[in-house]
Amino acid sequence: MARNKISVTEATTGRLLARLFRGYIRPHLGTLSVAMVAMAVVAATTGAYAYIMQPLVDRVFVNRDASMLLFVPAVVLAVGAIKAIATYMQAYLMGVFGQRIIADIQNSMYAHIIRADLAFFHSKQTGGLIASFLNDANLLNEALGKALTGIAKDFLTLVFLIGVLFSMDWQLSLVTIIILPVAVFPVRKLGRRMRKASMHNQELTGNFSALLGETFAGARHIKAYGMEAYETGRVAQSNETRLQAMFTVIRNRAAGAPLMEFLGSVAVAAVVFYGGSQGLSGRISTGEFFAFITALLLAYQPLKSIANFNTALQEGMAAAIRIFALLDTEPKIQDAPDAKPLVVRGGTVRFDNVVHAYSDGAPALNGISFEAAAGRTTAIVGPSGAGKSTTLNLIPRFYDAASGRVQIDGQDVRGVTQASLRAVVGLVSQESTLFNDTIRANIAYGRPGASEDEIVAAARSAAAHDFIVSLPKGYDTLVGEAGVKLSGGQRQRVAIARAMLKNAPILLLDEATSSLDTESERLVQDALRRLSQGRTTIVVAHRLSTVVDADRIFVVDDGRIVESGTHGELLARRGLYAKLYTLQGGGAAAA
After folding, report:
1. Is 259 or 9 the better-scoring residue by pLDDT?
2. CATH assignment of 13-327?
3. Top-confidence residue, 587 or 119
4. Does pLDDT of 1 surpass 50?
5. For a tag on the chain, would you pick the N or C end, based on fewer CB atoms within 10 A?
6. Of 384, 383, 382, 378, whose CA–CA distance to 395 is shortest?
7. pLDDT exceeds 90 at position 519
8. 173 Cβ partners below 8 Å, 6+ apart?
9. Contacts of 80 (CB under 8 A, 6+ apart)
């Protein structure tokens, strides 16, 4: 969907509404049109009530006309029935319309965010993103509902009633509507204050949501360190800050209706005084005066709604600014205009003088060059923070190098499509991320159409089948959020089975066996050796015992490759690799 970016300083209500119309309202104009017809009927029937007052007072109460005693109530019932049906239709259709638009916006937000690069997720709080999905979307829904209802039903009702007023007495009507321009200035001022207060409140709500998510996810550590009271105080403080901002929103929101109430009372007082004097002089009948007063009183509600509509609209526009700011955030990692599909002939991965830095400018890689030969296992080892995982992340373009080139079979990864690049890469990381679904679905995550036999074969190869079938529901067992119902080793084996099932020609293993016990590690290492046959496998490992059989080992320290060779060659050099191996209990082998 094409988007015209709107900065916060340029975000006028008109421009925001225009973008909402182009992107999200236009596809649902059919539903909106029917709802607006129903609103027009509601407005017309409201005006009809005022007209009924004149014959009711003059012909029934003043002239004692008994024939009208049945006619007027029958008209009232008919008008009431029509208004009730129209009110139901507009309320139902506007509800459907609003929810559909919000669902479309949320779908657009998710589709855009999930395609963002990892740097975006690392710079954002999860709770803040969720708050945008829920709170901002709901505020926008409410604003759209009130805005469109206010524009159609309340505005049309006001037009009909003003028409009734002028048809009865234009002089009396002028006395009434002269009040309306006076209300414009304070209502606009309230609207500006409301948008500013609402944006601040939504930001604090996002922070509060992020804090809740952080503490719930870290409940185990909070209990282990006895920090329940501390975290309770932190959440209470964040909630209080959010509440104070909400009170500002409530104060501005509450000011609109009383303002219109006061101005309305001024109008009524003027009408009573002027109209009463006209009635005493005989210029208007009692029925005409009561019909006029009825129309004026009926105009109160749409006037109040229009005042409230502006404050609600500004809340929604503040939400729209945040939503559009999110949608306008372009991922830094994108396909080049002339990107072509990656063609894997063997799967050789080459780093050529690659330099990379973290977002804060701290260097991560300082001119790394190496080659991972096709069909061979290459290990990258070194101390913590040396740049091992960063190296791995550059291959599928989770990040882009600041300079230098990463190539696969001679093709720069920045010159091929991301879809084709990631289709040929299988990844198992130390996080072993699982989704709250069945074990079967988690294994088949990269290949939804995989057969049962293929899923089971992958699980067997990852030493996961035996523990899976021992579970009450076997492969249909739900793993819980982040796989919480499984042990760390079980989660890791399911993740390895997922990578095996994908059967990609390039396999990336980032501390893939770090959560396994000795027996499971032995089984998985055997499986990984089988899987690595004919594939390019790049292993990042801290435990050097897991890479002793690698065809080539590169030792990274401070973002540079300081040694390379086989396990035996590196031990013989007695350099950094031999030191690390000795520290991990491999002293006998190193001797």
Report:
1. 259
2. 1.20.1560.10
3. 119
4. no
5. C
6. 378
7. no
8. 162, 165, 166
9. 45
